[in-house]
Amino acid sequence: MRYGAFVGGLICIALVVVGFAAFARADMVQDWRNPVNYPARVLAVIWNSGRLDANSPMKFGAWTVHFDSETPLVADLTELFGKPLQIGIGNPKAQITLKCSNAIVGERRCVLIFGFNPDRCSLDTYSYFDISVGQADMQLIDIPCPTALDLQR
Question: Are 99 and 108 in contact (CB under 8 A)?
């Protein structure tokens, strides 16, 4: 009887721990350059002209950006401070998790690059990307920097 109560107690504790881990907080962060906000998962990228999230693509000139099946991850900026914030590189596998479409060339994988200089942000589209050998064929397109990010932390 005591063994059953012990196992039941362990199961309850495990469910509570899993429950707390599953409910990470989501916030709109306007100071997205501040390393205190990371590591985090990006739920949306917000510009004055629109919003990119799992349900809403964003258009930049001839390119339309979509979230793929998985929400893109943001690198831990405590390790990358001073380097650009890259949205679309799915850690830890370094898979590109954003997709861009263009009426002429079709679909490509892409990454949003947000520099720490407020005026320097870009959309990088890849016709070829192989992290294992460090090779890529990309097109760099300047875009406006976002006004905010919705982050789950």
Answer: yes
| Helical residues (DSSP H) of the chain, grouped into ranges | 2-22, 77-80
- Three-state secondary structure call for residue 105: coil
pTM equals 0.73
129 and 136 Cβ atoms separated by less than 8 Å: yes
Residue found by looking up tokens 């760099």 in the block: 140
Place of tokens 């982050």: 151
Q: Which residues pair with 125 in a beta bridge?
A: 110, 139
Q: Which long-range contacts (CB under 8 A, 24 or more apart) does 58-63 make?
A: 60/123, 60/141, 60/143, 61/141, 62/102, 62/103, 62/104, 63/100, 63/101, 63/102, 63/110, 63/123, 63/125, 63/141
Euclidean distance between CA atoms 13 and 77, whole angstroms: 33
Q: What is the pLDDT of residues 89-131, one digit of tens each?
A: 655 555 667 889 999 989 988 888 887 666 789 998 877 655 5
For the chain, domain boundaries: 26-152
Q: DSSP H helical segments within 23-132, as ranges?
A: 77-80
112, 101 in Cβ contact below 8 A?
Answer: no
User: Are the C-beta atoms of residues 55 and 46 closer than 8 Å to each other?
Assistant: no
Residue 24 CA to residue 152 CA, distance in Å, equals: 6
